[in-house]
Amino acid sequence: MPEYPLKQRRIAFKNTIFPVVAATGLICMSYCTFAAQVSAPNDAVIRVIKSFHQHPQETVLGLEEMLDDVLPEYSPATIQYLLSYFYMKLGDFSRSESLLEQGLENVDQINEPLLYHRLLLQKSQLYEKTERQRGFFMISALVLLFSLCVALVILQKKRARYQHKLEQIAMTDSLTSLLNRQHTFKLLEEQADIAGACGKKLAVALLDIDLFKQVNDNFGHAAGDEVLRTFGALVRDNFRKTDITGRIGGEEFLLIFPDADITEAKAATDKFRAALKTAGNALPYALGPLTVSGGIGYVTGPDTMAAELEAIDKALYQAKETGRDAIIVVDKSTDGFTV
Q1: Where are the domains of the chain?
Q2: I want to staple 205 with a disulfide (CB 3.0 to 4.6 A). Which of 18, 91, 255, 289 is the partner?
Q3: Hey, what CATH topology would domain 181-338 get?
Q4: Quick one: pLDDT band at residue 103, thresholds 50, 70, 90?
């Protein structure tokens, strides 16, 4: 009786071990068959990859020709896999994706599982490279767009500065750096319109350098130009920024004093006359003190501007005739002049 259970155990062991051994044998046979199937393609793949690294274009062209005439060691999916890989390396992602899709359609998942896995892996890699390239192109486009915007802004600023410089040249007297005749009278008309519309009076002065012709005759035109440059610099330094000053003739100048009465304009002009005398003594020529004669009056509107300027001009000549170096004010109350 005790041996009966042992016999049963032996029978159960035999019934168990034989299926296990048989299954193990089948697995080994399947593995050997699989290894035999994939070893040759792997070797071929390695040879083609080595050829690609040495001669990329020739290798790709050769594989393209093999798509229609497949050799025994290459399945269609293998060639499409290789071409897809090579085109991805060459940067032709569109062609690589097309070949990859064809390879996935042609691959035998049962007999070529390793190739199928490679195709799937390559599809993932291609997607990553495509997205990376798309991101790179987008960043490059944004950088290029930003650079173009910056360049346009810089160009626009340079153009605006150049335009402003041209406008300044067009309205400025080159010798004194004051406004030229045309622009001075344009601004005078605008100020006269404002004064007439607001019911205000606009103080205006005409100045003329005394004995300027003698300066040119005795010391030459270089000395005369130096006097004019000195005059212009002193005008810019001694009058307000809001005052409008321009050269309207050879040695004749027009000054406009917005929001100032004649008393203030006369005081500013007398201060300028004193500065001009001092500057004349400092010039490199034996000129002596520089003096100026002038007339000051009101302009009340555009309709009366011509007559009022004529009266101011008469006041200037009155100053010349009475000994020069004086500023005479037009006195409308008496139709005369006051010093």
Answers
A1: 3-134, 181-338
A2: 255
A3: Alpha-Beta Plaits (3.30.70)
A4: confident
Q: What token pair was written down for 13?
A: 């062991």
d(CA 80, CA 243): 85
Which H/E stretch holds residue 330?
A: strand 327-331
- Whole-angstrom Cα distance, residue 90 to residue 155? 39
The answer to whether 292 and 209 are in contact (CB under 8 A) is yes
Beta 336-338 vs 202-209: how paired, if at all?
unpaired
Nearest to 243 by CA among 203, 303, 291, 292: 203
Give per-residue pLDDT as tens, 53-80.
666 777 667 766 666 555 555 677 777 7
Cβ atoms of residues 59 and 47 within 8 Å: no
> Could you tell me if 62 and 102 are in contact, meaning their C-beta atoms sit under 8 angstroms apart?
no
pTM of the model: 0.56
Is the pLDDT score of 323 beyond 50? yes
Write down the H helix ranges in the chain.
3-54, 56-66, 76-90, 93-106, 113-171, 181-198, 212-219, 221-238, 262-281, 305-321
184-241 tens-digit pLDDT: 999 999 999 998 888 889 999 999 999 999 888 888 888 899 999 999 999 999 999 9
pLDDT at position 134, please?
81
Q: Which two tokens stand for residue 305?
A: 């501007």
Q: Which CATH number fits domain 3-134: 3.40.50, 3.30.1140, 2.40.30, 1.25.40?
A: 1.25.40
Catalytic residues: 251
